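User: Predict the complex.
Assistant: Input components as received:
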Amino acid sequence: MGRRNLEATDIVRYEEDGPRVVLLDQRRLPDEEVELECRSVAEVVVAIRELAIRGAPAIGVAAAYALALAAACGDDLDEAAELLAASRPTAVNLAWALEQMRDDPTPGHARALHEEEVERCHAMAAHAAELFGPGTRALTHCNAGGLATGGYGSALGALRTAWERGALERVWVDETRPLLQGARLTAWELEAAGIPHAVIADSAAGSLMAAGDVDCVVTGADRIAANGDTANKIGTYSLSVLAAHHRIPLYVVAIDLRTPTGAEIPIEERAAEELTTRFAAWNPAFDVTPADLIAAIVTEHGVHRAPYVQSLAALV
Amino acid sequence: MGRRNLEATDIVRYEEDGPRVVLLDQRRLPDEEVELECRSVAEVVVAIRELAIRGAPAIGVAAAYALALAAACGDDLDEAAELLAASRPTAVNLAWALEQMRDDPTPGHARALHEEEVERCHAMAAHAAELFGPGTRALTHCNAGGLATGGYGSALGALRTAWERGALERVWVDETRPLLQGARLTAWELEAAGIPHAVIADSAAGSLMAAGDVDCVVTGADRIAANGDTANKIGTYSLSVLAAHHRIPLYVVAIDLRTPTGAEIPIEERAAEELTTRFAAWNPAFDVTPADLIAAIVTEHGVHRAPYVQSLAALV
């Protein structure tokens, strides 16, 4: 697989021959590029739960392919959809993708959804890149790249487009504990794209902002409520408070809008062992950033500003 | 070595028989309790630089013993002091301890300085514990425990005293990337003291505060300027902004006062490899928290409030 030409089908695809869902095992990156072959819905569920594939849109695409796999295997589609929907409680894209697939659970339909997802990223990126002035030094958290969306990326797509337009100077990459999606996946994608970057400890972001070295914060989202409240990787909320304190804009590049407010978004708590195997720990996977700390939400339809209830309403 | 009875001499001590400086190798904790024997100043310098012993007061104590070792070995004391002072640029305790030792570079004098340091911790802890109401849920960062001070601890000493007085409910422990002093050392000390605790990713602190689960933030300090600006482990500044946003007090338990303002405190940048061996990284060891984000600074003389230039002036 060519690092410089990571295609949507490298990240996740369906093979009729088998049949099977094939995905790039993101747990092994950046050290190894290994594909994982799932020949049953149960295997896809494990791959999603154990983060071989992660990122709300990419999970949705994988679930769509998994439902096509279920149909090809003659599985009960209700059962399959239920198993898949429960694999990550915060990623509502799962339920949405499964709903879309029910009337036509074919590989061709899943591929069409996958292509739409990548097109949506390109559209979001083109809108978001307008927000970048020349020489922008952006900070990002977790991985909202092609790996997270099934191709091109949302926040990282925006950075990519800004880079191509000459508006981006460098990217600060939060390493993103506990699973290091920033240090492992985002840095890997930025390196492949030739974009200057440096990894930092999550707790160093405040210092960088205070030093005047951050012009904007750009993240994706796992969920966006209709009022603009946004659930994303744990630590995004802390960044939003730090950015507001330093008068640095936080841009969220994503779409969802299936919940009225952030309070209704369930937050997955993952095993303490991801943090420490020795002591007690609390390990939420996500947090909710209130809409008033977000400077703009960028969807494929454009750049939306507060009040989000109004500016996002047309999209629901 | 009994885990429940960690004595000052378990953390660092001088043995005439050798002669040598013996210290508990903090890099191996919590998995192994191993002592490191330093038979030359150069070996102590390496131990400090590579964090076998860390925490500004503990480093000062180790440096004092190292100067006694230099004298016993017939080394040039100026050279020895210069080597030791350069081992960690932010920890001014080094220079201070060395200065104290110059007129009387004996093991007895070093032991007296060590005992004073531990007594200072007990005094600070007694004052700081007054700040804790019943049922306090405190959040701490890095390790300001007995391991960092050569016995009892500053911030962790305060938590210990509050616990003994029945005022502490639990401690949230920032894991403290990249070297995990919280997850490895603070959790280990809290477990030994029987204080309920849970480790969190540094980036989860904001979420916990937003949920109303944190009553105060308590940290030590590597340096405190005369105006109250405080240098401490990278991430403390981010915590101070988050705490201010959530109207939660940040208490700093320590003393120094040898610099006019935080701008004059040199910040050590450590090797990128501590964060990632694969990509570019920026890895400052400390940050500076401005005095206006600190609710109180606690020294052995009492609880000091803003304006610190005045409230701390009597101590200089």
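Chain A has a mean pLDDT of 94.
Let me know if you want any component modeled separately.
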